[in-house]
Amino acid sequence: RMEPPEGLDVQQSFVKALVIHIVTTSSAYQLGVLQIEEYFVLVPLTP
Fold it and tell me: How far is CA 18 from each of CA 1, 24, 42, 45, rounded to the nearest angstrom?
């Protein structure tokens, strides 16, 4: 049985993290959480 190269393993975990990020981001958008966070981030920046 051949072991997969290390680069492939890194790529798989990167893709997995990317998918999780996209899923959490899209569900957060549906809940309006990101808009609230953007609001709280932008307010302190306004003079």
Answer: 29, 10, 26, 29
- Distance in angstroms (rounded) separating the CA atoms of residues 40 and 18: 25
Tokens of 12: 């798989």
pLDDT in tens, 1-47: 676 667 778 888 899 999 988 888 877 677 776 666 667 766 666 55
pTM for the full model?
A: 0.44
Query: Which residue has tokens 């709280």?
Result: 40
CA distance 13 to 30: 26
Query: CA–CA separation, 20 vs 12, rounded Å?
Result: 12
Q: Where are the beta strands (DSSP E) in the chain?
A: none
